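## tool: complex_structure
## caller: assistant
## args:
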Amino acid sequence: MSVTVRIPTQLRSLSGNASEVQVEAATVSEALKALESAHPGFAERLFDDTGGLRRFVNVFLADEDIRFLQGVDSPVTDGQTLSIVPAVAGG
Amino acid sequence: MANVLGLRCRECGREYAAAPIFTCEWCFGPLEVAYDYDAITASVSREKIAAGPLTLWRYADMLPVAPDSAVDLGTGFTPLVRADRLAAELGLGEVWLKNDTRNPTNSFKDRVTSVALSKALEFGFKVAACASTGNLANSVAAHAARAGMRSYVFIPSDLEQGKIVTTAVYGGNLVAINGNYDDVNRLCAELASIYEWAFVNVNMRPYYAEGSKTLAFETAEQLGWSVPDHVVVPVASGSLLTKIRKGFDELYKVGLLDEEPHVRVSGAQALGCSPVAKAFIEKADTIRPVKPDTIAKSLAIGNPADGYFALDVVRTTGGAFATVTDDEIVEGIRLLARTEGIFAETAGGVTVATLKKLAAEGVVRSDERVVVYITGHGLKTIEAVSPTTGPTATIAPTLDAFHEAFDIEES
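## result:
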């Protein structure tokens, strides 16, 4: 499955300034691992010491928060977009 | 500002210079203003505060902005009123209401907006913006008008009329989004990375949030420089609750309180949007976002930015959370109006209904001095009570008609 990962401004120094990266993956977790393989440095920014997503990192699959799906185990389909949105503000 | 050291990440502690930024570039945790408390201690006193204006700017020494550049509509120093009739109804003892419906745009949001836009002018911004559930929309539009700034205010399109009209009247750009608040918020995060605008609750959020501390400052001053045993606070993003606690702690830190405060902090959420309360009740470590479905639209944030911090405050201070249904919210509004003569919006209904529930559960006790935060005016959400509230009788203009409708014994 080819997936587009949208990279937030704060992390573009890791992706050679690219705002989008194409990866091959069957789940969100695999997509984020593929991102780390292509551009080392993402994993330590996105995941905490226990291997879980940092609590202020939000990941959206086709505009849906993955916490409403199956989290990092959510399956992805060909052509979908995965967005990394660091830190909600608001309120 | 001499009293401000900079910004600090609340998650990992990394430090940054004071700038219009809101998130740690390493771990994405939220940034908070770091103060030089020794400098504040040296400059602040009860007498100096008492001689200050009857607004939140009397506490300027403890805010991250210079008061001479304040965007000020006269916000703050709202009444703290004793609520004996409400207390009696709920079986409680000493209950006080902090009536923040009495701010310029009738909600506590004037506190945060006044601080945020003052800081925005300091940074040189020309445009004010926000993502809002309604009250902030009113406040940002009004303060932007006052400051001569252009404004872009983003709201969910299904907000109450009483919040749409009262924002649009100030003449800025009001953008209604087909989506819920969390959708609006996400769009604003993206816009904030493109446009050089002062989004009060995005890139200005570290400063904005500090405005809420003034609710604690005023409460303590109005209680004769002492603190309540227990406070009940509505929770949307969780920022207000967190900052009220911080406010009490800071008063002690800078020498304005004689004794270290131990205030129990309880949170109020509507059942239809209760991600933080649910985590508390289920003793969970993670807060799962929800899709809101409640009449308390001003509290309808499904992905609360400060949820973890609010949860921590409630747990560590020995407070609790309760959730209330839409019917209980309406009853809460009516209970407050009927017993104390204060008409609150739905968030106030949530807070009063939560107080009632926590009192019945014995969490809020009759031997405690309790302060309840009423954060917005009822005229903003009149739809909540209008279906069940109206004239007692509609009659012809005759004595007979009156006597037919009312069997009156007293004269």
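## assistant note: Chain A has a mean pLDDT of 92. Chain A touches chain B through 20 residues (CB under 8 Å). Handing back to user.
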